[in-house]
């Protein structure tokens, strides 16, 4: 058992282990949108295969309701828990060690798997240039470069993410205006001829919800940067909420353009739907723009995933839920460099399985389990700390409606996932069950309970009814 540290020494060590506060709303937008935007360049189109063209857009908007609820909940709790870890930190204060261990692990795999999916798409789009192109060296070099950026500091990393995400987002509008959608006589869009409605009925919409998440998956990761914000109560709500609006606009345009340029059967199987839509226009400038946009979106997403997964892993290590070797911060750059370096080869390994929909499914499953627990945590948070008992940087309106919506839609999406990927779900549940057994039977013996609990003392009042 690790020796308990005296309170004064613990306070000093806690200060030393804190990350630098350098981020503003722009960086939070770049983190949230940067991770998610790749979902508009790939992955979302599997909703077409599951629910048809109409099922896809319905899934997009229904899942949009899920995510606006999630963003509001995360922003309220995250604004008063300014520590790296996001939903892990929420679980730490509200649910205890075993639940927070699972939430942290789920967050890590959500982003590691998403990073792997990014690597898969980069490889396949490079190979589309010529069959002799070897994608592996480019992918490894890209991920090594992004890892190096994260190693050197979060400010430069997310500043770069802002610019490459903005350029990738603009290319969606290049494609939109390249179709001349505004001219009935010159428009290239053929929505009526290429869409297929609801071929599987309402059950298809339920099945499509799983991949509708890909339009927004990762926006909740903005809460993971709470500790590094100059003003958490300002940067987190502005960056996250503006980011969600950005994604909702981009998602709707993406469905509209792709459905009007690529037939539903081909669209439902495409690895890079926006690029395929650009090819369908036959315009070289649009094709080049979307090629660049797809690559940049993948890089921005991978960059954000490295940031978020490492913060969750670092936070778990700092709280002694996993070995403390990953809690070390670089003395010069003030980054959790060991966590960053440790997760890189894991992501690369999953990326080169070549199973894009399987990798996406495990990422989505991990995220949905976090969402269900987040909805529960919101009820517990409001019960423990009613309005007025603790200072909040943001208050989610209409409570408990957002938490109920999040809970119901997350469960519905899990039900839809079961229809096509029940074996993947079973494997995921078995993995997290075995991880829980490992923690309960082995790792909990080495946990420093005092360090885990006292990190928040001095900032938190006693809960109601304590």
UniProtKB/TrEMBL annotation:
It is a multi-pass membrane protein. Residues 34-447 form the Amino acid permease/ SLC12A domain. The keyword Transmembrane helix applies. Keywords: Membrane, Transmembrane, Transmembrane helix. Gene3D superfamilies: Amino acid/polyamine transporter I. It comes from the Bacteria. Its main location: membrane. It holds the Pfam family AA_permease. The chain crosses the membrane at residues 28-48, 54-73, 93-114, 134-151, 158-178, 198-217, 238-264, 284-306, 339-356, 362-379, 400-419, 425-441. It is found in: Membrane. This is Amino acid permease. It comes from Dehalobacterium formicoaceticum.
């Amino acid at each position: 058992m690790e020796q308990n540290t005296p309170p004064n020494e613990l306070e000093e060590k806690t200060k030393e282990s804190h990350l630098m506060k350098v981020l503003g709303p722009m960086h939070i937008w770049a983190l949230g949108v940067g991770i998610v935007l790749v979902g508009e360049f790939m992955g979302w189109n599997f909703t077409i295969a599951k629910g048809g063209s109409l099922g896809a857009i319905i899934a997009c908007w229904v899942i949009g309701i899920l995510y606006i609820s999630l963003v509001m909940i995360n922003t309220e709790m995250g604004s008063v828990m300014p520590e790296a870890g996001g939903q892990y930190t929420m679980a730490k204060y509200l649910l205890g060690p075993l639940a927070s261990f699972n939430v942290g692990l789920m967050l890590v795999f959500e982003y590691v798997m998403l990073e792997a999916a990014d690597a898969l798409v980069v490889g396949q789009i490079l190979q589309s240039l010529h069959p002799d192109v070897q994608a592996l060296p480019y992918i490894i070099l890209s991920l090594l470069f992004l890892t190096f950026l994260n190693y050197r500091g979060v400010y430069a990393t997310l500043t770069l993410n802002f610019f490459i995400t903005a350029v990738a987002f603009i290319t969606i509008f290049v494609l939109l205006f390249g179709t001349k959608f505004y001219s009935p006589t010159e428009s290239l869009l053929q929505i009526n001829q290429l869409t297929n409605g609801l071929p599987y009925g309402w059950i298809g919409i339920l099945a499509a919800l799983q991949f509708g998440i890909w339009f927004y998956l990762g926006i909740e990761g903005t809460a993971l940067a709470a500790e590094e914000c100059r003003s958490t109560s300002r940067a987190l709500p502005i960056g996250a909420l503006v980011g969600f609006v950005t994604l909702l606009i981009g998602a709707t345009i993406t469905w509209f353009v792709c459905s009007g340029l690529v037939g539903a059967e081909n669209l439902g199987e495409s690895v890079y739907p926006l690029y395929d839509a650009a090819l369908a226009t036959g315009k070289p400038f649009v094709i080049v723009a979307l090629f660049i946009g797809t690559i940049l979106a993948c890089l921005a997403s991978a960059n954000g995933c490295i940031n978020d997964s490492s913060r969750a892993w670092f936070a778990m290590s700092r709280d002694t839920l996993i070995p403390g070797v990953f809690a070390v911060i670089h003395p010069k750059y003030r980054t959790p460099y060991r966590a960053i370096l440790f997760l890189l080869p894991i992501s690369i390994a999953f990326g080169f399985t070549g199973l894009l929909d399987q990798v996406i499914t495990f990422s989505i499953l991990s995220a949905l389990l976090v969402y269900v627990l987040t909805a529960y945590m919101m009820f517990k948070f409001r019960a423990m700390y009613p309005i007025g008992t603790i200072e909040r940087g943001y208050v989610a309106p209409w409570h408990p409606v957002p938490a109920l919506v999040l809970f119901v839609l997350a469960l519905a999406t899990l039900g839809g996932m079961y229809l096509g990927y029940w074996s993947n779900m079973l494997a995921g549940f078995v993995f997290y069950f075995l991880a829980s057994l490992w923690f309960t039977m082995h790792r909990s013996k080495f946990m420093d309970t005092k360090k885990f609990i006292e990190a928040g003392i001095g900032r938190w009042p006693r809960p109601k009814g304590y």
